[in-house]
Task: inverse folding
């Protein structure tokens, strides 16, 4: 039974952030399956790669629904119960994917998967801030690092399933079992409470202009990351790589991504975040130039560099914004949900261009998103003010 001091300081009793690390680990693994399995899913439902790309659209739609509908429950105190339940739904969706033979049913399953994943995403990002407060910076970066750790082996898991069964079933079943296990762990943790519950205003403490700039940044960043990882496998096979080589190319990206996220822990602690975002976007543009001019001999280094450069950008900007607002579930849902708009259309559009127009559209598309990230970072820092952020110790 909790004593008086426990009631007054509920944060001292929670250690949920460790479970949130595991959530991002298994969700990263599940998300990493999508790109490498696209061609196998197309064969499974008897359609083309371009046609099965609808699952990316429905995944994005579900992601938005999850952030705008279900994720509001965090402000109502559902906490870990909501995260755990959404993870169990995600696990069920993944387990069902290998049994589906109709394209629209597959799309519906990815819609449900997107809604449940986004709900857990918003929850982990919000509750870790509530639990750790001013100590959250490096740990938030580490949590996002776990996403890359989970995703790094995904292409090889898909390749192994393809080699054993000729489809992606084993990969989806493995990911579903891992997510279900973590869901049970989360449900058995005491949830953090909102430290601003008594004082939080109903009104946002940032302006509509600032919200628009944040939305622009995250829309572009999600495209920069998701388009690359979703289609680099297909891009590799289209320029003549074998399936195994394309899988290694994708894994190389995730290795770079993981190392970039580990570096983010240091960058968050030292508060060099904005400079790291800007340098990362410039490196992303440089890689796109190498892909455009078809320097195929350096594909692996390019994938590695792209991952290293892209990885810090989301957690560093999220932490930058978090230092300027009393972060609620609603505010996190707005940031994560509007970023999810990118996942609704841009990966699908990039796939259509890659499949129907040519491989040259892939680097051009990605370079455009990186330039928008660069512009968005400049506008956000001008609006919020960089000096206060750099003076803070995360």
Result:
């Amino acid at each position: 039974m909790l004593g008086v001091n426990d009631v007054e300081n509920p944060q001292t009793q929670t250690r949920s952030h460790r479970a949130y690390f595991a959530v991002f680990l298994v969700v990263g693994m599940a998300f990493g399956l999508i790109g490498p399995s696209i061609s196998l899913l197309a064969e499974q439902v008897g359609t083309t790669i371009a046609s099965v790309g609808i699952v990316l659209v429905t995944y994005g739609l579900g992601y938005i629904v999850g952030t705008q509908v279900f994720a509001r429950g965090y402000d109502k105190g559902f906490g870990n119960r909501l995260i755990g339940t959404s993870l169990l739904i995600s696990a069920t969706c993944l387990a069902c994917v290998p049994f589906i033979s109709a394209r629209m049913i597959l799309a519906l399953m990815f819609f449900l998967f997107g809604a449940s994943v986004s709900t857990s995403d918003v929850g982990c990002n919000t509750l870790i801030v509530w639990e750790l407060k001013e100590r959250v910076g490096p740990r938030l970066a580490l949590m996002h690092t776990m996403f890359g750790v989970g995703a790094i082996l995904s292409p090889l898991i898909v390749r192994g399933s393809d080699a054993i069964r000729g489809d992606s079933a084993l990969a989806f079943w493995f990911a579903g079992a891992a997510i279900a296990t973590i869901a049970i762990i989360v449900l058995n943790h005491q949830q953090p409470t909102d430290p601003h519950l008594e004082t939080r205003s109903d009104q946002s403490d940032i302006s509509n202009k600032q919200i628009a700039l944040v939305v622009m940044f995250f829309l572009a960043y999600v495209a920069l990351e998701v388009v690359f990882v979703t289609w680099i496998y297909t891009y590799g096979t289209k320029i003549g790589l074998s399936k195994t080589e394309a899988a290694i190319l994708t894994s190389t990206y995730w290795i770079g991504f993981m190392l970039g996220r580990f570096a983010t822990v240091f960058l968050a602690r030292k508060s060099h975040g904005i400079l790291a975002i800007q340098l990362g976007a410039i490196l992303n543009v440089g890689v796109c130039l190498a892909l455009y001019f078809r320097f195929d001999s350096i594909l692996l280094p390019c994938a590695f560099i792209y991952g290293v450069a892209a990885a810090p950008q989301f957690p560093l900007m999220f932490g930058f914004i978090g230092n300027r607002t009393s972060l609620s579930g609603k505010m996190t849902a707005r940031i994560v949900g509007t970023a999810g708009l990118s996942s609704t259309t841009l990966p699908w559009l990039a796939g259509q261009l890659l499949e129907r127009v040519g491989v040259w559209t892939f680097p051009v598309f990605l370079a455009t998103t990186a330039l928008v990230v660069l512009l968005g970072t400049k506008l956000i820092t001008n609006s919020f003010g960089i000096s206060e952020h750099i003076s803070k110790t995360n």
